[in-house]
Specification:
GO terms for molecular function: kinase activity. With 721 residues, the chain is of the alpha+beta class. 56% of the residues lie in helices and 12% in strands.
Amino acid sequence: MAAAAAAAVLALALSQPSLGLELGMADTAGAPPLIPQRHQGGSVMAVLAGLGTADGLRMELRSDDLAPEPDTTFPAYVDYNRFLQRQGEIAALLQAPEVTLYGTQGSLQTLAPAPRRLDQLPWQFWLQLIVSVAGLVVGGLVWIFRQQDQASRYFALTGVGLYLSAGSAAVYSTRELALASELFRALHMANGLGTMLFCGAFAAVLLHYPTRLTRLSLGPLLVSVYLLLSLASAAQLFDGFDTALRVPVLLGFLATLGLAAWQWARVRQDLVLRAAFQWFLFAWFVGSGLFLMLVFVPALMGRDTGSAQAPSFALFLLIYLGVAFGIARYRLFDLGLWWFRAWVTVISVGSLVALDLALIAVLHVDRALALTVSLLVIGTLYLPLHAWLWRRLTGNEQKRDPIAVMQDMVLSAHRGPAEAWSDTLRGLFQPLQMERLSPSPPQHRLADDGLTLELPADRLLPALRLRYADHGRRLFSPHDVQTVRTLQMLCGRIFAYGEATRLGMEQERQRIARDMHDSLGGRLLTLLHLAPETLQPQIREALDDMRLTVNCLSSGGASLGEALGQWRAEVDERCDSAQVQLRWQQPEQGPGLDLQLEPETLLHLQRLLRELVSNALRHAKPTVLQVRFMLSGGALSFSVENDGCRLPPSGWKSGVGLKSIRYRVETLGGQVSCQEPLPGSVRQTCILPLMPEPVEPGTSGPSAAPADMVDLPKQALGSPS
């Protein structure tokens, strides 16, 4: 059908008689047209004053006889009818066997009219023909694949309307000189009918797409009203084309704006429909809006825009390609910020055209000056507005930059690969839901029309399903798939390298532990048996320290609950030897007790507790030693309290012991403090995060100490050691 329709338009254009001329319009509407004439090896534009035949018939020509769109050149019906009458008279002259061209000073040349050839058809004809056929093809295809959808039916009607409008305009707007008056009138009526059908049918589309707005059957009513207006215009029941054609079309455009706002309010919570509707709105309002701005609005202001109509039809290609995707519900995921950029650009261009027209029509400013002023004003306003909107819409993009997110993941060494990967995806895509998949999908893919992103398992990373990106504000896109595929490949390699490094460190710790046990341990035992009794306590302490180090290195870590049991046994033995009563308090259950401590962390904690207990036993005469462990607010808090203190904490001097305590606490990312709950007693407290992030000694750890604790000054730590 589209091929037959195109062939009909082409055959009608080729059937018209042609003189093989390239005519041009003079600057003055009433002046004769211009024709190129060869002169001294070149060509000049000569005045074509009229045409004549051998029978003595002759007719003067005017430049407005070449008007490509008569309803913009002659908006009043009286002038339009006079134009058609002249067209008929000129066409009658062209039926003669020979036609003589007359200039201002006599005959120029005599030509024999012949049917028009393909190479004589200008590019404007082919453009309008392509647009008309595209309307039929796209509208027909959408209707074929969605025959039960009312929106698709009305969309197919818009294709018919575009064919009638652009196809008829392709013939009469690119004529060489004239058409028969009745043929011209019929083609122009078809153009108006197609315009009205397009406008009414598209308003009906928005009544049904993407959701049906009302139960009333308003679609047929809208189409019928616009068809009746077209018939009224053909019957010339109004005073001119402005009232009969352009005003109803502009009102229809405003109606579609209201319907679009209504539809947007209905679908803004549905991500899939909203994505398709965004493309739908962009294609429709950009294409039709610019066409109205370039052709209809200037015509209402009294400007002849007939020459701009043919190239402006190219905007309808944008409408049909975009709207076809929207109605057929293709996966329109790559919108987002691109959609915002396109809208800002289109609004800026439209504002430039509107301001330029206003300066020319209202203030009667010269065209060149008006364009300069418009560019200056729009440029001045556009750049700051664009930057402001861009910051508002992309303010969190830097936080979710893939490289920055991956850097945060690598620096968070305390987390396992699976947890770190999940946190990375949360920071990058901010999904409302994330769950593990079993079995793993074969590849990265989108599902549920972009609501879901599925990731396969890779090395140490589990298979995951992410749903509702950016807290449900957008769909996942193919760009997201590419990003996460690259990121997962890099993260998998990083985690594999980290795992290999961890295994290497574990093997090295085991080797060091064996060497210390076999070599240093044996020598200390020998020295213990040979040394006098006065040196044996120090040797036993050195031997205990070595055993502690070897156990921590060789054990590969332990849970907090297991470590508390070992520490209690050691402190209990030391208190028995010193004849001090031990009061030990620890939580019996809780999620923190299952926390696995790395060997280095375990060693820090055990030596920290040992140093606190040693301070109490060595430098005071306690009768009771109270050790308390608590888990609260994601932190481990433990304190060592003793009586028999001879000097309050404020009088202590900094020594190696307290410096060592502060070093270990800060290494574990915690805080140490000291207070005097009762006269003669001291309580030393350490607060450590359950998931410590090691920091360099000398930097401040997290502030988690209770308000009643007094931090020991770094340079005034009073320690008996």
